[in-house]
Write a structure and sequence with these properties.
80 residues, alpha+beta, Ribosomal Protein L24e, Chain: T, two-stranded antiparallel sheet, 4 strands, 30% helix, 30% strand
Length: 80
């Protein structure tokens, strides 16, 4: 499964570091954590092409496709 959204180009980020309590009292790093986007496997029907394609999209991209239409969003992203 892909770890990056082809529409929004969302990938993983690294978070973590110090909590304020740790920073105020002593040196004890909490460590870094890799955070991944919420990716879902989705079948999308494109009526202009009369085709169905399967993509791994972030949930934000799914909402964008529902709002603006599959053909325009995927064409702008360069997927089709």
């Amino acid at each position: 499964m892909a770890k990056i959204c082809p529409v929004l180009k969302k990938g993983s980020i690294i978070g973590g570091g110090y909590s304020n309590r740790t920073r105020a009292t002593k040196f004890n790093p909490t460590g870094m954590v890799r955070k991944y986007p919420n990716l879902q496997k989705k079948r999308i029907y494109i009526p202009e092409l009369k085709k169905t394609i399967t993509l791994t999209l972030s949930t934000r991209a799914i909402k964008t496709i529902n709002k603006r239409g599959a053909h325009s969003v995927l064409k702008k992203a360069g997927v089709i």
